[in-house]
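Record 1 of the preview.
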Amino acid sequence: MSTNSILELALLGLLRQKPQSGYDLRKTFATTAMRHFSDSPGSIYPALRRLEARDWIAAEPQAGNDSENRRGRQVFHLTAAGTAVLVEWLGRPVTREDILWRMPEMMLRFAFMDTNVPRSTAIRFLGEFEQALGAYVAELRIDLDRMSSKMSINTGLLAFQSGIEGFEAQLSWARHARASLAEEAR
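->
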């Protein structure tokens, strides 16, 4: 599954929510918190074609009269195979590498969990996220202490501290989110 781009996985998640045209998907990327994805037709449509070629999505002509659908717009929806790929991605364990290199992907995975996997999967995800992030923050704090003892305060040290505090805020959020979901599951 490592050959799938985050854009392709985001498209699967959005199409799982509801069938949409390429234009609708582009609007979502342009007007929501997902705007860090390119809404360029040169990104979206090739990704949709790759997903269609893998039989993870299927396209149908958009409903409407001929004058409304002059461009031959299609509405894409997830297939059973596409749903299986999405669910597998959402259920993957959280690793140290995810924390180090794929934080935006982790949040995207979490955002799509609600209607696609059991609540227990989201709670497990948050527990793994919390454990991996907590271990990483502890390592960073040790590095900061070691660095602070050897040098005076400088902008590099302060920037490093800012990064740690950002991770600590994410860790605090994960603890709260897991507790909230666990409480609701009772």
